[in-house]
């Protein structure tokens, strides 16, 4: 996919420097067709982004709706970011980032239906209470331990000074 790589001297650095960067350049790897996380997600709409690097207009973006056992439907939107509103069924979107007609990156998103989001939200609330309680216990334990260690170090320093 799209990225930046540092080109370093292969035979080490002059002097005492540990890392010598000759230049920073674009790198192109295999197309990463992974599952993305939306920029923002609400109960009504979802905002998704293609894989890109600045400047955004150097690439072409192809948004598709993936339909099982059918040909994908290409959307007229050609920007790096798209916002869609939830419907009655889950829909999978794919964005291909292209340069000179070649696909250089790809990412997919599943936009769940409004009813599924409400079900997931209520499930999160039910299971979230026990997770939150355990997280609170761990945080309080770490805080108390930190305070005790800090107090011990301060007393040790005062004892050494005296």
From TrEMBL:
What are the GO cellular component annotations? acrosomal membrane
Q: Which InterPro entries match?
A: SPACA1
| Alphabetized UniProt keyword annotations | Membrane, Transmembrane, Transmembrane helix
> Does the keyword Transmembrane helix feature in the UniProt annotation?
yes
Q: Does the keyword Cell membrane apply?
A: no
Residue stretches spanning the membrane: 137-161
A GO BP entry is: acrosome assembly
In which domain of life is the source organism classified? Answer: Eukaryota
The name this protein goes by in its record: SACA1 protein
Organism the protein comes from: Ardeotis kori
Organism ancestry: Eukaryota, Metazoa, Chordata, Craniata, Vertebrata
